[in-house]
Structures
1.
Amino acid sequence: MTFSEQLTNWYLPNKRDLPWRNTQDPYKIWLSEIILQQTRIEQGLSYYYTFVEKYPTVADLAAAELDAVLKDWEGLGYYSRARNLHFTANSVMDSLNGKFPNSYEELLKLKGVGTYTAAAISSFASKEKRAVVDGNVYRVLGRLYNIEDPIDANPGKKRYQEIADDLISDKYPDLHNQAIMEFGATHCTKHKPKCETCIFQKQCLAFQKNTIDSRPVKKKKNKIQNRYLNFYHIADQNNFLIQQRTDKGIWFQLYQLPLHESLDKRGFDNHIPNLELLGDFEIFSIHPDRNLIHLLSHQKLHIRFWKIEVKELKKIEQHQLVSLADPVAKAFPKPISEFLQNQLKPKLFQK
DNA sequence: AAGCCGGGGTT
DNA sequence: AACCCAGGCTT
């Protein structure tokens, strides 16, 4: 029995029932794959339901405003995925007559679709023989073959892809791809893999050599940068101010409260808002509200919110007025949306 | 090749 | 605190 046959024999009785496994519509499979990039299935599931419900076809997605798509993506992270999603929906409408591609080569041309996603969609939607290599596959193959090449360097990536290409089934590439990822996600897990009951135990080189916990190999460690952000909640009795982020970097094109970024911890500790930069408001009060630390994969954000009450708010350049009663019309980064949600709650229930 | 891009879960 | 998650893009 081939490896692929063993694998799919394990998969069929052990697979989870996931909604994107019950369709061959390349558009819906594409939605699921973009949502699930670097994202756990449990986290992405509700977003998938939202998107197939609100945008059942690629035409619906293309017709939506980018701001609306970003709003539906709010909280999921890696927001370039949402921008590329919207861009690609429009390019499919304009250049492909609204017919979503299902071949590897055509999919690879789409913005936001790389080798993994093109292999996944083409195998699931049209049974093209293209082997997926994602985090699960790196782990499963890294252990089976006890591979020492790092997965984050080109030689290793090439070798893993070659092995995956060699193992995939001719007749059931779709099942094979689903199976190897499911096996990595639920059986050959990073922590406490179920080696005792593993069907591949006898052929697993890492199990024989006792290197399970150090496979796959990765060389890079990410360092994190400290940043110090002051957000101003500037409000009169009815409205407050927001602005759109236009600088390249984190949270591009999302909305936020007016921001002053301190250069270092000392500047942050000594910072006091200077509203002259924003306009001539009659100020009733300024005081610091809450402090928090928000962790990104590569940055540690030290955040202080300031509450600033003014007599009468005016619209100023590069900013928008938003009703205090309805603060969530735009997409905000997680810490901002959380702060705004808190503002809505009655003070009785605040800590 | 290396760095950038989120938020959340697990150990 | 470190690592990872159905990765891809930019430099």
2.
Amino acid sequence: MPKIKTSKEEVLKKVIPILRSRGVQNSSMSELSKACGIQKSHFYYYFSNKEDLIREVLATVHSYFNYNLFKIIESNTLSLNEKVLKMKLLLDKLFRASDGGCIMANTALETIHLDPTYKKEIQSFFKDFILGLQRLLEVHHSTEKALLLAEQMVQDIEGGILLMQIYDDPKYLNNAMKRTETAILNL
Amino acid sequence: MPKIKTSKEEVLKKVIPILRSRGVQNSSMSELSKACGIQKSHFYYYFSNKEDLIREVLATVHSYFNYNLFKIIESNTLSLNEKVLKMKLLLDKLFRASDGGCIMANTALETIHLDPTYKKEIQSFFKDFILGLQRLLEVHHSTEKALLLAEQMVQDIEGGILLMQIYDDPKYLNNAMKRTETAILNL
DNA sequence: ATTATTTTAACGAACGTTCAGTAAAATGCC
DNA sequence: GGCATTTTACTGAACGTTCGTTAAAATAAT
């Protein structure tokens, strides 16, 4: 094989935090390539265009989220308390670590009224997010009540991510996570 | 030819729905001017630059929101039930009517990690949003409990606006509004 | 030599912004 | 009231810069 400076996976990994904090439109191919240490034209070796890159970024985030969330939820060895704890750590990693909040929510609000390209992926992500919470809530609630609560929890969390960023204060997301924990454990 | 074609107030009014649905970065001066029926160069007669235009747009939305919200809350003639109803209509008008959701949330997520220019205005808007809800909640709750609930309601509503746009379904915002009503009326 | 990886150089289009110019309206002067 | 001047409202063309994208050349591994 020829000398590999970087790989597609590496590019995706390095590009995610930038797109999350700066947004899709505000992240130029020049800026993204600089962060990867390659020429911007080299992006077109991996991706056919910018839209394609964003699509792959969202798919990567979604599959990472899904894999980890359902690994926790469907575990046979973890207690409900442990599952809640692990889920909180996962959400922290995705939504809090460094700046930028939730890349799915950010991209949704930025693009959904311009270009439906990413809509299905984003819908699918939130469907899984809600479904995951619903599964945990079903331990102590009925299926219908669990769904309604799961939707409320996702709204609470996403609103918390918004306020967290506006006020540079993690308490809003923390409070939403506490309320989610209370609902799941039925305290 | 050039009589008075438009005014600063008219420009602000026409520009708001576009900025709300397409975002700040995705709305070019050309596009905005076209929607106002004037040349883009004429924008610079009213505003010193694009940033200045956005700042005035946010200030306009904020003052419109504040005037109407606190007129309802501080009324001596309206019952609590009526206040809740009127508030719901106001939030509907601001967040639901046409596409785009909440311009304050959209602008926050789009710009807050790039440019702190709009941060103070957005912070101030959400401070007033929370304060307004807190006032209504204080009828049946303690001051501290009312604040915590008000923050939760704003998070719920903003998350609901997000899901409403992602799934083209008003139920998410509707549910958040119902929960807000329940909390205020202490049902 | 061939294939895979990466760079250099350039493209047209769109961006925000500036500026000289112009027509209508408002104002000042008689 | 009529005329000259200034101010207000607006246009159209152009500016330099950045955008996403492409083609071709260069480099490195098999």
